[in-house]
Amino acid sequence: MTVRRSIATLTFSALVAAAAVTAFAQTPAKPATAAPAQAKPAPAKPAATPTTQKPATAKPATATAKPAPPNPALRTPAKLKDVAPATFRANFETSIGVFVIEVTRAWAPMGADRFYNLVKYGYFDGNRFFRVIPNFMVQFGINGDPKLNAVWSEANIADDPVTQSNKRGFVTFAKRALPNSRSTQVFINFRDNAGLDPQGFAPFGQVVSGMEIVDKINAEHHETPEQGLIQSQGNAYLMKQFPRLDFIKKASLEKAAGTAPPAKQTPAVKPVTPAKK
């Protein structure tokens, strides 16, 4: 009787061990919400011969708007070295509303300076929100002009120490799994993502107004748009394949209080010296 119980116990233990091994073997190696990363740009493809296509019945608004030419200063990233103020705000006018990002330079000086220059010189204007993962983050920062992507994709900045956690509404540069690989791609956290902190993702600012707008950004395509194709083809690829993506109409620096020019003052009237009698 004792021998039978022992055999039964061993058999049960073996089944539990086998189940545990199976459970670990089925655990996916890659998490469902991968850390925000920027893909290495794909080599530019030769332009295809245009074909005549029948226009869609309802043309999306994004396809009819002709983008403004980029600021010529953006063609030389090495020259855009303006130092950001200690704090500043950037207004993002998007296809669904306005949100405001407040940057604190002390949090991540290198990231703050790069973001300041990108906003100041109009890099984000026309950019699509190409990677939107609900309950994780929204990513943008690949330009609609392939020529600009070619000069900015490797214009990297040094890493900043992580001094703030990736909380909901905090804004951070994406990067590759390499040191000093941040360039232009930025993401906004939809939730508290403290797991990104030890990976070197250093927040430099936070959304202080319009987070409800950020929450509404179109997430129907998740991670489907291919970063390599966005790099090489720009908005032409996104507008054709993903015409309903939300986008940035214009990003601009908010004027700080007290920076208005002083009012013109009326010169004081010089007193008239009475004539001597």
Descriptive account of the structure:
This protein is α+β, with helices and mostly antiparallel strands and 277 residues long. It has a domain at 86-256: Cyclophilin-like (Cyclophilin), CATH 2.40.100.10. It is 24% helix and 16% strand. It is built from 7 helices and 8 strands; from the N terminus they run ααββαββαβββαααβ. The chain has helices at 2-26, 61-64, 109-120, 146-152, 211-215, 227-233, 235-241; strands at 87-94, 97-104, 131-133, 137-140, 170-173, 186-189, 203-209, 248-253. It has an 8-stranded antiparallel sheet. A hairpin with a 3-residue loop joins β3 and β4 (137-140). The termini are far apart. The relative contact order is 0.19. Mean pLDDT is 81; it is low at 1-32 and 43-65.
Number of strands: 8
Assigned CATH class of the domain at 86-256? Mainly Beta
Order of helices and strands: HHEEHEEHEEEHHHE
Q: From the coordinates shown, what is the CATH architecture of the domain at 86-256?
A: Beta Barrel
Distance between the termini: 142 Å
Spans where pLDDT lies below 50 across 5 or more residues: 1-32, 43-65
Characterize the overall form. globular
Question: Level of helix content?
Answer: 10-25%
Residue fraction in strands? 15-25%
What's the pLDDT, averaged over the residues?
Answer: 81
Question: What structural class do you assign from the helix and strand content?
Answer: alpha+beta
Please tally the helical runs, counting DSSP H or I stretches of 4 or more residues: 7
**Biggest sheet, strands in spatial order?**
3-4-6-5-7-2-1-8
- The radius of gyration computed from the alpha-carbon positions, rounded to a whole number of angstroms, is 27 Å
Q: CATH homologous superfamily name of the domain at 86-256? A: Cyclophilin-like
Task: Please summarize the sheet with the most strands.
Answer: 8 strands, antiparallel
User: Per CATH, what is the topology of the domain at 86-256?
Assistant: Cyclophilin
